[in-house]
Design brief:
CATH architecture: Alpha-Beta Barrel
Order of helices and strands: EHEHEHEHHHEHEHEHHHEHEH
Low-confidence stretches: none
Structural class: alpha/beta
Mean pLDDT: 95
Radius of gyration: 19 Å
CATH topology: TIM Barrel
CATH class: Alpha Beta
Strand content: 15-25%
Number of domains: 1
CATH superfamily: Luciferase-like domain
Length: about 325
């Protein structure tokens, strides 16, 4: 089974932002040693408890601290930026780290309305222009597909020997069809979606139009998973993640609580039901249980690869979770 890692650089209540970012680097190194295929960094803006607003900056450092694992963005939120600048940044990364760079893009704001306005005065307008932004970005990444427009003679220098691999990330039919239309690989965020992912991915596969004869559809399924030596331990670890997610949805902000603090968090009946629903969307268990569930999802969603996001209070528990999953699922 081909597995990868999505990291959001979450900050625990006993950490600083710097320590959380250092944990991301250690996780990338561990992922490489364990045989994970990719390590992607997410982009968030002014969200308490998340330390990375600029994945491209982190990737430049992670690239120097690793050797062969593919590294990328999960995702650059394209409506905030001009495609030319994004192409320049990722061509630079691809020049520094040949054959290792993934450019994942998405359309979400990644933060509050205030943060969105501070980043871009025309975000909603840019969201509507997303299909054009994607096409423009792909043209800057690949001169073979440049059209006769105002930027026809413009290059996103430096031009790497191996271009960044473009990905579209999403949770909807709209994103799946946009990826298919442009011959892009597609990453479906199952861990943050209530949509019918199986149907969405089928639409992507059925609608895929390659830009080059060698291109074929490729699907990553991104899931939330926590693995421990015992099921009981895994469920205990998940409590901090679940309560933290609830706190964020209520606008309480803050950092990942410890197990003790999370267990003592007062819940209404509706909140208990909400957490039970979220827990069903996660994979929680011992190595055998997690492997079985991952295999089921891979078959159900026709995924070429599964990307795992893991949130725990203790960074060592997170790395241990990835270690247990790798030993059970990755063949070296």
């Amino acid at each position: 089974m081909k597995l990868s890692i999505l990291d959001q650089s979450p900050i625990s209540s006993n950490q600083t932002a710097k320590e959380a970012l250092e944990t991301s680097i250690k996780l990338a190194q561990a992922g490489e040693a364990l045989g994970y295929a990719r390590f992607w960094m997410a982009e968030h803006h002014d969200l308490p408890g998340l330390a990375c607003p600029a994945p491209e900056v982190m990737l430049s450092y992670i690239g120097t601290q690793t050797h062969h694992i593919r590294i990328g963005s999960g995702a650059v939120l394209l409506p905030h930026y001009k495609p030319y600048k994004v192409a320049e940044v990722f061509n630079l990364l691809a020049t520094l780290f040949p054959g290792r760079i993934d450019l994942g893009i998405g359309r979400a704001p990644g933060g509050s309305a205030e943060a969105t306005n501070a980043l871009n005065d025309h975000f909603l307008e840019q969201v509507w222009k997303m299909p054009d932004l994607v096409k423009e970005l792909l043209e800057f990444l690949d001169d073979d597909f440049k059209t006769d427009n105002a930027y026809a003679k413009l290059s996103a220098s430096p031009i790497p020997l191996i271009s960044p691999m473009p990905w579209l990330l999403g949770t909807s039919k709209k994103s799946a069809l946009l990826a298919a239309e442009n011959g892009m690989a597609y990453a479906f965020g199952q861990f943050m979606s209530d949509m019918n992912g199986k149907e969405i991915i089928r639409d992507y596969l059925d609608s895929f139009r390659p830009r080059k004869p060698s291109e074929r559809p490729y699907v990553i399924l991104t899931v939330s998973a926590i693995c421990a030596d015992t099921t009981e331990k895994a469920n205990d670890l998940a409590v901090s993640s679940l309560i933290w997610g609830l706190q964020r949805s209520k606008g309480e902000g803050g950092f990942i609580p410890s197990f003790r603090d999370a267990k003592h968090y007062s819940l209404s009946e509706s909140e208990k039901n909400e957490l039970a629903k979220k827990k069903r969307n996660m994979i929680i268990g011992d190595p055998d249980e997690v492997k079985e569930r991952l295999q089921e999802l891979q078959t159900t969603y026709q995924a070429d690869e599964i990307m795992i996001v893991t949130i725990t209070y203790n960074p060592q528990d997170k790395i241990r979770s990835y270690e247990l999953i790798a030993k059970e699922c990755i063949k070296k």
